[in-house]
Inverse folding.
């Protein structure tokens, strides 16, 4: 039983660490995107096709980041479900 408690604490720690790191990276990326948007607004030498490409790139990046977070959350849930099942079988 102590091993299950230890495993649960480790998973909680890993999930918390992942969430905090992911949130920090998200904030940094959002700030970078705001700087990029300001750059695009202030520079007229970049053609509209280039602006559209950069905006599309940023949108795709946001979508993939959200998909990555969803996948990580799903896998953490699977591990937590596995631990809950193992705890139930042990009792």
């Amino acid at each position: 039983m102590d091993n299950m408690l230890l495993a649960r604490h480790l998973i909680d720690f890993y999930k918390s660490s992942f969430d905090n790191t992911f949130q920090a990276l998200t904030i940094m990326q959002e700030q970078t995107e705001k700087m990029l948007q300001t750059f695009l607004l202030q520079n007229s030498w970049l053609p509209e096709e280039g602006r559209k490409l950069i905006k599309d790139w940023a949108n795709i990046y946001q979508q993939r980041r959200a998909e990555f977070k969803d996948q990580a959350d799903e896998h953490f849930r699977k591990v937590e479900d596995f631990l809950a099942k193992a705890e139930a079988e042990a009792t």
Q: What stands out?
A: The longest helix spans residues 48-90. The mean pLDDT is 91. The two ends are 8 Å apart (CA to CA).
